[in-house]
Amino acid sequence: MALIAGLVVIVLGIGIVWTLLAHYHIVPPLRWHGGAAWAALTQGRAVTHSSSISRMPARSALAPVPPVQGVLAKGVTPFTPRALGGYATHWGLWIGLAVALLIVAWMAWGTAVWLYNVPSSARRGDVWRDWIVWRWPVISVAQWLHRGDAQKEAWARHKRTWVMLTDSPAATADLAHAAHVLDAGFATSKPDVAWTTLPDGTTARRMTVVAADGLIHPHWAMGFHAGTMQEWVQWATQWAETALHHAGITGTWTVSAEGIVRRGRESASSPRGEDAPPVEPPKSTVEGLPDATQWGQDGLRWGQLRAAAADPLPVLSGPIPPERVQDVVRVLGHLGFPDTVAIGGQRGLTVDVAKIRPPAALAKRILGESATLAGQLGHGELPLRMAYVEGAPGVIAVERPRPDRQFVDLVTALARTDKQTRQSLKNMALPVCCLVKSDGTPFWSDAATWPHLLAGGTTGGGKTVSLVGWLASLMITVPPTRLRISLVDPKAGASFPWAKHAPHVDALVKTPQEVCQLVAQWADEADARFEEFAHGGVEDLAAAMAAGWTQYPYRLLVVDEYKDLKDQLEKDDLKELERNIGRLGQKARGAGLLLWIATQHPLAETIDSTLKANLPTRLALKVANTVGSQVILDSPGAETLLGRGDALFKSSSMGVAIRGQTPLATEGVWQVIRDGWAKKA
To answer: What is the DSSP track for 589-642?
Structure first.
């Protein structure tokens, strides 16, 4: 490369110097004559022709100088200025030809480098011209000068260039159309957060969705608003791709935690092209877990679950940014609560837990200012959940919603469960990974001890997804021989599409009449089991299993959307159903028959006091108001949740509900469960 650059500089320098000398008549100017040039090229000497001489001026300042005597005697062409010009023409042609060949070879080399590193989608003429005219010369010179930083910068600039060049006007128009679709969809679906009322009584858009620089992102016309951002991210994650598909804009779209919507395409930094086969990520022993690691007494092992795990595993918690705690102290000072001390806190998946210690005389008043504090901190009208920290006298935990909220899949929650907790699962009959707490700790509980569950939350709270994640954790930790599941889905199986091939599922019940018959059968079966236990001298199913009985598995009945079920039943059938549910609730736990009831209408007329008494364990998702929280939890708090799996869990043995993010079961989990138990069968 240094030789090529040196030759180019030498040839250009010779041409410039010769031109200057010819201007002052020191050397003859170069005159082109085809025949003479060809003769000089082939014979290696200056040749004069009569034809060329005849074309010369009559009086030339470059008349031949009398030849030197010795030269004529040898029969060699005399050394004259014209002879010198011939020799210059001869060597110039050879040098020019060599330089041309070197330049062609240099360009071919650069093109080969370009083809190797650029994806096939970007291999276009305009992209190649940018490379060969601007980037490749800079890289060549930088290599000659041993400037690695300049090479990297030139290559980075070219990568940015080909990304811009591949965005055609049609693609830009398509992106603008997509932004318009999402803007209209969000404004229609979430008018309360997309619009705001101005002091003069008029309404204006708080946030719009725009397209710029190849991305779709929110535009804050009136300043950033955390509550609106959170609603936008949730809505876009759930509905953006569906809305665009119905608008005729196909493709895969992703939403980042900052609310930026991108078309799902290969990263420009990837060295392989579109036609290259996908690279399978290595399935290493994530986080150092041996393949023999097990959850539950006879559950699946890590070697079987690893295929559905992210590698590397996401981090479930971290230290809270100090400014998130200092903001709370600063705002409390403005609200008339001075001398509050910042203690620290923890960053969870959904919320940042900021811990403060206010003066004892002001603590009770601060707990009553959750709505005001939320508004002053930029969280909108949603009150913040605040409570005393157990084991830390005088310390209050303020749960601030994260602007970049994270979620957790079930396999990650299992892998992040510490060794001591995994050991304790072996003593549980039905281990359930209920949620991941704000400190990143997965919380497990034994469903056999609850005994029955009431789950409630409004649409978008994540009720069904949370229950499905719980069922998946049961299917991972308990073999099908010890647990049989029946599902009630008024949506004709839409809530549980995986159930058809799940090894633990006995039935998927879809009609109200089938539900009534099934609950009646279970109530009778509970009576029959207790009779067998009495004859065998055991107290309950747990004692029977400890004594070696294997004929009675645990049975779980999950009823999704209880209100819809009630609305479809006649009065007498409903009364009979509630009577049988009462029979199950009173004594079915000891028989190993468990009942989970879920509803998205947590109202007193849906969940009466008798039913609540028989379902002492509660899972509360986001509800519309304090009344709904009182129905589910018998206490407020669920109205402050953020939706999409942000939950409060309280079993019959717990005094205070635990907040956390419920894990979700990804599509790959069901395949792992089917394959894992099929190999063990």
So the answer is: HHHTEEEEEEES---TTTS-HHHHHH--EEEE---SSHHHHHHHHSSS-GGG--
* Contact call for residues 301 and 672 (beta carbons, < 8 A): no
Evaluated on CA atoms 352, 356, 362, 364, the torsion sign reads positive
**Radius of gyration of the chain from its Cα atoms, rounded to whole angstroms:** 40
Residue-range domain boundaries for the chain: 2-117, 169-263, 322-401, 428-680
pLDDT in tens, 301-324: 999 998 899 878 888 988 888 899
Burial 516-536 (b: 16+ CB within 10 A, else e): bebbbebbebbeebbeebeee
pLDDT, tens digit (0-9, with 9 covering 90-100), for 453-505: 999 999 888 999 999 999 999 999 999 999 999 998 877 667 788 988 899 99
**Per-residue pLDDT tens for 345-354?**
999 999 999 9
Residue in 331, 322, 325, 329 with CA at minimum distance from that of residue 377: 331
Q: What is the pTM of this model?
A: 0.60
Closest CA to 621 of 470, 403, 484: 470
> Do 322-401 and 428-680 share a fold?
no
450 by DSSP, 3-state: which?
coil
Q: What residue has token string 């901190």?
A: 377
Handedness of CA 304, 308, 311, 315 (dihedral sign): negative
Q: Which helix or strand (DSSP H or E) is residue 649 part of?
A: strand 646-650
How many CB atoms neighbour CB 19 within 10 A?
Answer: 12
> Rounded to an integer, what distance in angstroms lies between the CA atom of residue 368 and that of residue 364?
7
Model pLDDT for residues 19-75, shown as the tens digit of each residue: 766 666 666 665 555 555 555 545 554 444 444 444 444 444 444 544 444 444 444
Burial class (CB in 10 A: 0-12, 13-18, 19+), 460: middle
How far is it, in rounded angstroms, from Cα 214 to Cα 212? 6
Q: What are 384-401's pLDDT values in tens digits?
A: 999 999 888 999 999 999
Token output for 46: 């200056």
Task: Name the residue with higher pLDDT: 652 or 373.
Answer: 373
- Note the pLDDT of residue 147: 79
The per-residue pLDDT for range 108-140, each reduced to its tens digit, is 888 888 887 877 666 777 778 888 887 888 888
CATH code at 428-680:
3.40.50.300
437 or 9, greater pLDDT: 437
The answer to whether 645 touches 460, Cβ cutoff 8 Å, is no
Asked if 232 and 255 touch (Cβ cutoff 8 Å), the reply is no
State the Cα–Cα distance between residues 594 and 538, nearest whole angstrom: 19
CATH of domain 322-401: 3.30.980.40
